[in-house]
Amino acid sequence: MRSGRHFLQIPGPTNTPDRILRAMHRAVIDHRGPEFAALGRNVLTGLKAVFKTDNRVVVYPASGTGAWEAALVNVLAPGDRVLMYETGQFATLWKNMAAKLGYDPVFMQGDWRTGTNAEAIGAHLADDKDHRIKAVCVVHNDTATGITSDVAAVRRAMDDAGHPALLMVDTISSLGSIDFRTDEWGVDVVVAGSQKGLMLPPGLSFNAISPKAWEVCEAGGDLRSYWDWRDMAGPNDQGFFPYTPATTLLFGLREALDMLNEEGLDNVFARHSRHAEATRIAVDAWGLEILAANPAERSNTLTAVMMPDDKGANALRAEILDTFDMSLGTGLNKVADRVFRIGHLGDFNDLMLMGTLCGVEMGLFRAGVPYRKGGVQTAMDYLSV
Length: 385
Ligand SMILES: *Cc1c(COP(=O)(O)O)cnc(C)c1O
Hints:
By secondary structure, the chain is of the alpha/beta class. It has helices at 18-24, 34-51, 64-75, 89-100, 118-127, 151-160, 211-219, 229-237, 247-263, 265-286, 313-324, 350-366, 375-384, and strands spanning 7-9, 56-60, 81-85, 104-108, 133-139, 141-142, 147-148, 166-170, 189-193, 205-209, 289-290, 302-306, 326-328, 339-343.
């Protein structure tokens, strides 16, 4: 028995607000009936504002990984080359998936401390004279490294190279938290998920699809059935789905969209930016280093903090979980045990952040990690004005 609330400060799944929990706490309805059609139309239309797009958005009853697969199989044919960029573990997993599915990913090597290099992507595309590369895939906010890449710059580099590849972007841990402009940045396929900035439990994922990507899908693509965009269009136009949707999560999604609208997307982004800055100030005051080397690329949804050399991040996380009932994100793959990640996204406010930072600072002390006291105080000073 543990009293009080668990602090779920991993960078997704995030805390689901009571309003959304209540919206989902109801009987399932007929997914072919008129009440459902209204719900379906509401969410399919409402999502466009969050994606900043006029394009079609489709919803899958799947985790984000499903929407990754949907993005690939709807536009790529077996053997097609895709240019992908290593910003961290999530970019790596998407690349691994592309290889497993029989595509030909070219993985531009990164150092896990910096974001996509648009110039290098442009140079690569300029060399691809016979346009063998069919898509460029980047992760807007790599949740393993806490790095946000400049997607607009990638678009410009593609245009400057005069290359026709599709631009596909994973926004699973940024959509609804960090500004993302599908149409303005010319993103052909957006991949998103329910359990991070959208504040829902895991189980829904999304693709936003440009007319150009839709044409490629109609003309080609791979063998696909469950993920087939084409099967979605007809039913979706009536508010329905080709198979049983996750009705309960869609009730939650409607509430989440209402909440984002009520707060206003710009205010949501500003809130995330402020909490991220307070976190970075605290980390700096502790004398610890942030994994993202370039200040302009530091994520507003999570901060990956590097451990001093001989100290393991997992021992610290275990101490904090055990003593203070708070979950922090683990280090993945190349930075396993070298970093811990503080999630500061979704349904989150100043006092939740302060509780989180207090838990980290007390944990650093208890785990015997060398640090300077006072990070919490500097964050408080920042938030107080
Ligand atoms: C969480 C996440 C994923 C994986 O999504 P699942 O819902 O776990 O399948 C992919 N990419 C990014 C950037 C993520 O944050």
